[in-house]
Amino acid sequence: MNILVVDDEAQARERLRRLLADADGRYALAGEATDGRQAIEICRSQRIDLVLLDVQIPGMNGLEAARALAALDPAPAVILVTAFEHETVFAFANRLAGYLVKPVCRERLFEALLRVQNPTSIQCVGRAGSPDSDPPRIAPRRQISAHYRGGLRTVQIEDVIYLRAEHKYVTVRHLDGELLIDESLRVLEQEFTEMFLRIHRNALVARGQVCGLEKSADGGAYIRLRDCAERLQVSRRHLPEVRRWVQGDNADRRMPG
Questions:
Q1: In terms of domains, do 7 and 112 share one?
Q2: In sequence order, which residues have a C-beta less than 8 Å from that of residue 162 and are 6 or more positions away?
Q3: Mean pLDDT throughout 100-120?
Q4: Is residue 41 part of a domain?
Q5: Where in the numbering of this chain does the Response regulatory domain appear (predicted)?
Q6: Which stretch of DSSP H or E encloses residue 58?
Q7: C-alpha to C-alpha distance for 86 and 101, rounded to whole angstroms
Q8: Which of 75, 120, 143, 234 has the most CB atoms lying inside 10 A of its own CB?
Q9: What is the CATH number of the domain that holds 201?
Q10: How far is CA 128 from CA 43, 51, 67, in A?
Q11: Are residue 120 and residue 84 in the same domain, yes or no?
Q12: pLDDT at residue 131 above 80?
């Protein structure tokens, strides 16, 4: 995989260069650029499979450059790199090959690179489009990974029961236990919107795990889960949507009382 690194900060380019060098030859650093227009010219003149594209670059910013890169034929895959957790950036990034948050860590970088190598992802992000159209959305991940005690632990998405934000981390409750990841719950919701249901500002539950709703003595609402005895509170804000989904898509699940 030939990779182009685009960032106007020399230190940031050096970090990515060192991380890619640790990949034992699996990835080739094909070039570096400091702005979007330079990146586009490099992609036009040589074969680039993937662009690691900083959002905050001078002139044409990263989002504009990503649209222009999507119009090339063939179009390289694009992973946005950002120092700021901004909703617009993440929403746009989820329609590309993904995003990375600075400072980029080795595990997150290699996980993103492996996703790009997935044939389904390449088919989606490699198609050329017009500069005015949004790049196509890629399929969500099939698993979530996190660095744990010197190794990498992986959980299949289909085994996840719920995702709950706690402080700076998200707890992934799955069939075999728990896993802590440092991802944004909002971004996870955008990526897995068909698989998870928002029940609280800090919690998403797997739709397939929902058995129903029940009321507590104080009038609060809690969700029942198929493979977990724990009851999760449903906020008043999200209760109408949760009730509509439970009663509309799952006629046999009713809120008692």
A1: yes
A2: 173, 203, 204, 205, 206, 209, 225, 228, 232
A3: 79
A4: yes
A5: 2-117
A6: none
A7: 11
A8: 234
A9: 2.40.50.1020
A10: 13, 15, 10
A11: yes
A12: no
Rounded mean pLDDT of the chain? Answer: 82
Q: Which residue type sits at 72?
A: L
Structure tokens at 182: 């440092």
Pull the structure tokens for residue 61.
Answer: 């910013």
Instruction: Print the domain residue range for 45.
Output: 2-125
Q: Which residue has the tokens 């159209």?
A: 133
Q: Which residue has the tokens 């236990």?
A: 177
**pLDDT per residue over 161-182, tens digit each?**
999 998 878 999 999 999 888 7
Nearest to 74 by CA among 148, 127, 15: 127
Whether residues 165 and 227 share a domain: the answer is yes
- Number of domains present in the structure of the chain: 2
Q: Which two tokens stand for residue 101?
A: 């948050």
Lowest mean pLDDT among 22-26, 128-132, 167-171: 128-132
Q: What is the pLDDT of residue 140?
A: 64
- pLDDT confidence of residue 209: 94
Alpha carbon distance 225, 232 (integer Å)? 9
Give the model's pLDDT for residue 151.
63
Q: CA-to-CA distance for 249 and 195, rounded, in angstroms? A: 13
Distance of CA 12 to the CA centre of its chain: 21
Tens digit of each residue's pLDDT (9 = 90 or more) over 191-222: 788 899 999 999 999 999 998 899 888 888 99
Q: How many CA atoms lie within 13 A of 126 on its CB side?
A: 13
Check residue 209 and report its DSSP letter. Answer: G
Both 147 and 231 in one domain: the answer is yes
Tell me the H-state helices in 46-98.
62-70, 87-93
Q: Which two tokens stand for residue 71?
A: 């119009």
Sign of CA dihedral 59, 61, 64, 69: positive
Q: Longest Cα pair distance anywhere in the chain, in angstroms?
A: 68
